[in-house]
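pasting for ref
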Amino acid sequence: MAGTTGGNNMETLLQAEKVTKSYGEKSLFTDISLSVAKNDKIALVARNGAGKTSLLNILAGTDVADSGTVTSKSGLITGYLQQEPILNDDETVIGQVFASSGEIAETVRKYYKAVRSGDKSQINEMALRMDALQAWDSEAKAKQVLGKLDLNEFDKPVSLLSGGQKKRLALAKVLLEYPRVLILDEPTNHLDTEMTEWLENYLSAPGMTIIMVTHDRYFLDRICNRIMEIDNGSLFEYNGNYSYFLKKRAERFEQKKAETERARNLLRKELDWIRRTPKARTGKSKSRISSFHELKDKSAEKDHTENISIRSGSKRLGSKILEIKNLNKSFGQNNVIRNFSYTFSRFEKIGVTGKNGTGKTTFLNLITSSLEPDSGIIKTGETVQFGYFRQEGISFNDGEKVLDAARRIADTVKMSDGSVLTVSQFLNHFLFPPARQNDYIGKLSGGEKRRLFLVTVLMQNPNFLILDEPTNDLDIDTLNILEDYLSQAKICLLVVSHDRFFIDKVAEQLFVFESDGLIKVFPGNYSQYRNYLKQNKAGEEAIQSNRGKSTERKKAEKNRKQKLTFKEKRELEQLEKEIDVLEAEMNEVEEALSGGKLSAEELQKKSKRFAEIEDELNVKTDRWVELSEIESG
C-alpha cells in the first residue's frame, strides 16, 4: 500500500519519512515513506521521469527533498552508483578504485604511484607498509573484481576509458568500498551477459543490503526481496520478488479499475441531481456539491494501468531480404568478424549476444553500410527499409518540444490495420501524454530521450529493424510495449542486447559473437542457449575427466579381472538407478534456476544443490564407466 515502510523486524539502516520532491511545476512524489532494513534487497520501479533517480539521490544525500526527512543509522556507510558517475580523469583504474578515504586505500594508492615513478626507495617503503596493513589482500580482491568487469589494464588512465568502461569502473569502486547499504542506479547498463550473471551472484550473497533501480527483470527477480513502485506520485510496496510484484500489481490495478467505475456510476447520479437543483446550494447541498467535485476528480483519473499496445505498420518486404557471404572485418590485428555467411528469411527475429568488444555494433554498421567490410559481400533486397536505433543516436535539440521533434519525421503514422494515427496519438502510445508532448526535450530524463528516439525510428515504418542496446535506460512499462510491438510486427529484426529477459521474449534465434571474429548461429533464445552451454560443458568435463585418467590407473584397469563379482554387478545396477535419479533432479533444479521465479535465498540454495549434484554425478559416472568397461571386457 502507499507509503508503507516494510513488514520486517530487522535492524533499520535508512529511513525516509513523508518525502516530497518537485521540479518546477512537475511533482514527482508527495509524502512518501520507506525504510531500508539490514539484508533488504529492494528494487525501485517506475516509469521514466517518475522520480526513481531523484529518490535515490535523496536517499544517498546528493540531493535534498522539498519536505520530509531522511535519517540513517549512526555511522552508516553507503555506496552510491550513479547513472553518470563522477571519476577523476587524472587517476589510473586501480588508483580510482582506491581513491576513497582510509589508511589501506591511501597506502595502495601511494604504492602504485611509487611503482609508476620507479622510485625504488618509495616502492620498498610502501611495500613494507602494505605488509603491515595486510593491504595485499585488498589489492588482490580489487584486481579480481576489475577482471570480472573486463578492466584488466590496471594502470590505464581513467581519461582513456570509454563511457561503458567508466560506468563499470564506478561499479567496481562502489563494490570495493564494502558499504553497509549499496544504492545502485541501473548497475547492469554497459555489462555484457557474463558480467551481469557474475554481478547477480555477487549481490545475491547474504548480508548485503541493496536499494537499486534496474530494468533487467531476470536480475531483479533473482536478487530482490522487496519491490517499491512510484506511481502517480505515491509509493506502493510489495514484499516479494518481481514475479510476486507483477501478480500483486495486477490485483491493485483491478481494484483501482473497480473503484474508478463505481465513482463514475455515482458521478452520473450526482450530475443528474446537481443539474436538476441548481439553486439548492445551502447546508447539506453544499457538502453534496463538494462530494460531487471529489467524485468528478476520482472518475476522471486516467487509468494508465490498462494494457497499452502498438500495431505500427511496415512497408512490404519482398522475398530477397539480406544476404551475407564470407564477411570479414578486422581492426589491426584484432579479428572482429571472420568469414561469416548468412541469408535472412522474411520476418526473422534474431538476437545478437556476446562479450563487450566482440564486434556486435561493428556488425550492425556493416549491414547498414555505415562501415565498409575488409572483404565479403552484403546484398540488400530492393524492398528493404532499415530502421536503426543506435546506442549513440540521440541528437535532439533540447530547446525543441517533444511533439515538434516527432513531427520533423512525419505528420502521421500508418498502422498495420491500415488506419492512420496522428503523431500526437502515436506518441501517446509510447507513454508521452499530451502534456508531456508539449514539454521541451531538455526537461526529459535520459530514459525519456531514448524512448523518444525509439519512437522516431518506429515512425518511419521500417521493415528491417536494427536495435543496438535498446533496453538501456528504458523503464519496464516501455520495454513491455516495445516487446509487444516486436513480437507481432511483420518485420525482420536484428537486436543487440545484454537484457536476457528481453532477448528471450523477442528473439527466435541468436548470433553469438565469440573471440577472434567467430559468429555462431544458435536456433533458440538466450535461456535455451545457456542451458545448451551448461549441458555441453558438463559433457566436455566428463570427457576430459575420463581422458585424464592416470597411466597407473589405466594399467591397473588392464590387469584387473575380466569379470564382475556379484557385489560389483549389484553396484553397477544401483549406480544406473542413482544416476537416473540425479539427472532427473538436475533437470528440475536447472528449470527452477532458469524459471526466474526464485527468491534470492531459494536461488542460492538451488545453485548450491546444482553444484552438489554435479559432483555426485561425476563420481558415480566415473565408477559406472569403470565397472562397465570390466563387464564388457
